[in-house]
Design brief:
The chain is mainly beta. It has 2 helices and 8 strands; from the N terminus they run E-H-E-E-E-E-E-E-E-H. A 5-stranded antiparallel β-sheet has the order 1-2-3-6-5, with no helix packed on it. A 3-stranded antiparallel β-sheet has the order 4-7-8, with no helix packed on it.
């Protein structure tokens, strides 16, 4: 499982307050079970919400997936709401590029659905976080320790104040 958190902890805690009538995305997981066939991997998004999802407040039309380079258009093949979990099944997995899952009031709107926090209705994620890749794998080179020059010491020089103190004592 790959997990992506949305926004910041203070915002989630504010929405978590029972007196606040808003809900929002807590975190998103991309289901990537190695036991699944390759064609079925990374096609299920598990979107966890801060509070239980109100019945009928979300449909597949309220979900918009944006981003990607080679894979940009998705069809939602499965959509299930259970307590504070939204399970979205897609027709295919995405590529290595970042994606954004956005909850919208309607397909033609960018505003969040009624009862959902504007900042917690968007989460950025990647389908391939745990996948090996040939790119960006260079390990950071260890810098050699900085060579420090020795201080210039003159052992024949006198410490006048210490010498004076010895003479006066």
């Amino acid at each position: 499982m790959m997990t992506f958190f949305c926004c910041e902890e203070r915002r989630r805690n504010a929405v978590r307050d029972p007196g606040v009538a808003l809900n929002g995305i807590d975190f998103l997981e991309v289901d990537d079970d190695p036991a699944d066939p390759v064609s079925q991997r990374q096609r299920t998004l598990l979107v966890h919400f801060v509070k239980p999802i109100a019945a009928g407040s979300l449909t597949a039309a309220n979900v918009r997936l944006e981003g990607g380079e080679r894979v940009t258009a998705f069809q939602i093949t499965g959509f299930a709401v259970s307590d504070n979990l939204l399970t979205i099944e897609l027709d295919r997995a995405g590529d290595f590029a970042p994606y954004v899952l956005r909850l919208v009031a309607s397909p033609s709107s960018s505003a969040p659905p009624a009862g959902y926090d504007a900042l917690l209705s968007v989460v950025e994620f990647s389908f391939k976080v745990n996948c090996p890749t040939d790119y960006d794998c260079a390990e950071a080179g260890a810098c050699p320790p900085e060579v420090r020059s020795e201080p210039d010491l003159n052992y024949l020089a006198r410490d006048f104040n210490s010498f004076r103190g010895l003479m006066l004592d």
